[in-house]
Amino acid sequence: MASNGTENAEFSFTSNNNASTSASTGRKGLPKIQTQKKTNDVCHDDSTPPVKAQTIDELHSLQKKRSTPTTPITGTQSAFFTTLSEEERQKQQLQSISASLASLTRETGPKVVKGDPARKSEGQKVTLTSHSHHFTPTISVSDSSLKFTHFLYNLSPAELYEQAIKYEKGSFITSNGALATLSGAKTGRSPRDKRVGSPNIEMDEQTFLVNRERAVDYLNSLEKVFVNDQFLNWDLEHRIKVRIVSARAYHSLFMHNMCIRPTPEELEDFGTPDFTIYNAGQFPCNRYTHYMTSSTSIDINLARREMVILGTQYAGEMKKGLFSVMHYLMPKRGILSLHSGCNVGRMEMYREDNLSTDHNRYLIGDDEHCWSENGVSNIEGGCYAKCIDLSREKEPDIWNAIKFGTVLENVVFDEHTREVDYVDKSVTENTRAAYPIEYIPNAKIPCVGPHPKNVILLACDAFGVLPPVSKLNLAQTMYHFISGYTALVAGTEDGIKEPTATFSACFGAAFIMLHPTRYAAMLAEKMQKHRATGWLVNTGWSGGSYGFGSRIKLAYTRIIIDAIHSGNLLKANYKKTEVFGFEIPIEIEGVPSEILDPVNTWLDKMAYKNTLSKLAGLFKKNFEVFTNYKIGKDKLTEEILAAGPVF
């Protein structure tokens, strides 16, 4: 480079031996490359206007603009929002969250600050709250009462990705864009550590309060917590407001996906939640506390409408805990809550989720539903799918839903390419994906539908004696709904060497909060009122028990389901089976007729009869605990008892 010696220097690219070249030309006579003359002794590129920032921090603040509401405010909402200033709304939100995090042994809630403590330069308001309790305080001052609790409120998936990757060991972005994370030592639910108190008797009030205090103190001791305010139930008349306070970005993103996501306007008017979860899963319960049997405790208090999680980081505890709550709250309103999948064309309801995603139909939901006077509604805002052995060919919808925003739990992936190996069970066989329901292309938004015309109970019969499909009368539908039969096979649990019958009342015994006959009576009433037909579909074995027979082909099951959807199966010719008294079709187009009656597929007819009798006996024994309960009106109880197997 050479200077021409003038005061305001110009830059030109030259070689050293060309310093005497004319100022108007460059090397080899090419025009000299110039910029404009500098001013004020500052050299800069004037090709674009300079950024409006004097420091790097100011530049970073320009990178992110504030979110603006996208849903119009109408009606009474508009009047409400105009009466409150932005500062007043923020103050109300802070007071509400402080109240949620309040210890029961102090007069006021913690001092809360909205925002990430790592970003103090962005200017956060500190608001001291004065939420009072009617409890007599036993501790007036403590270290936790002197500190501020920062809370991150309803963060977006992108923000939660940043938090997880920066602060939570074991969090990675996979090649498909999902967030892979670990749930710690627990990779599944802990049903033996789940307790319900008030009005149930699994836990007394004092024990719940001890655990609540432990969880709240732990959360308040952290530098920051995550707060999600969301909804349950797409039926607006019966919607429930829930607040989830958690310590991990993983948990916050999981619930962001699984609950219904509010609009910015709905958050403005959220107010006090109907139910609150305190997820302190990284912190154990006190083993010396009454009722505790391990370091894990999942406690629900129906009177306080609160849930406490200690000693487990498995996110599914939150999802199923709220499902249990809905199983209590909804029947109190005359609404039937069901562990089911649901899709619509002509509306059907399923007991399980593996057949609920049909490309030719709209998906209402895959797991949890309510049946009210308005029709059917999904309780959740997302799907929680099993990932073990997942492939694009077998489950294209789930495969394609695993992308940015999805949480992948406990999966194994290549350390370099980050490609997920869905076959690998190194961490657990219970690998899962949690994603918003709109990630399914044929999801119906909002997730509501009309009254069902078919109620399909799914069973996986490993004994190989139940028909692929049976049409049920109302009493039979109630009998098999209450029974909730399926079977375990070798390898599903430790110690299982041969098919083992398992009965889960209402196909969700772990979640229901009232007696199973209460739900059955409600189902019977709704099926009668809306003239719905009951079906029992067996997705298990044919031609012999597990290990001898073969699994009924999924293609045949889908043809059967399609025939139910279309109404063609109602027009078929039927015959009655022995023992269980099922009505089974003689012929279904596309399905081999010989498999429709299980006895045809067994070479050893005596073995078939013995196995059938064995299963029937297990049904009888299981149902003995329900024989003294009245189910529904008129003579339905007697009809249901008579609808079981007859030897």
TrEMBL record:
Region listing for Disordered, in residue ranges: 1-51
InterPro entries with a match to the protein in the record: PEP_carboxykinase_ATP, PEP_carboxykinase_C, PEP_carboxykinase_N, PEPCK_ATP_CS
Keywords tagged on the record: ATP-binding, Cytoplasm, Lyase, Nucleotide-binding
GO cellular component: cytosol
Keyword check for Cytoplasm: yes
GO molecular function, one term: ATP binding
EC number: 4.1.1.49
Pfam families reported for this sequence: PEPCK_ATP
Domain of life: Eukaryota
CDD domains on file: PEPCK_ATP
Chief location category: cytoplasm
Top EC class, one word: lyase
Catalytic reaction(s) noted: oxaloacetate + ATP = phosphoenolpyruvate + ADP + CO2
GO biological process: gluconeogenesis
Compositionally biased intervals (Basic and acidic residues): 38-47
Biased composition (Low complexity): 7-25
Localisation: Cytoplasm
The keyword Secreted appears for this protein: no
Gene3D superfamilies xrefs: 3.90.228.20, Phosphoenolpyruvate Carboxykinase, domain 1, Phosphoenolpyruvate Carboxykinase, domain 2
Pathway assigned to this chain's UniProt record: Carbohydrate biosynthesis; gluconeogenesis
Family: Belongs to the phosphoenolpyruvate carboxykinase (ATP) family.
Name of the featured protein: phosphoenolpyruvate carboxykinase (ATP)
Organism: Erythroxylum novogranatense
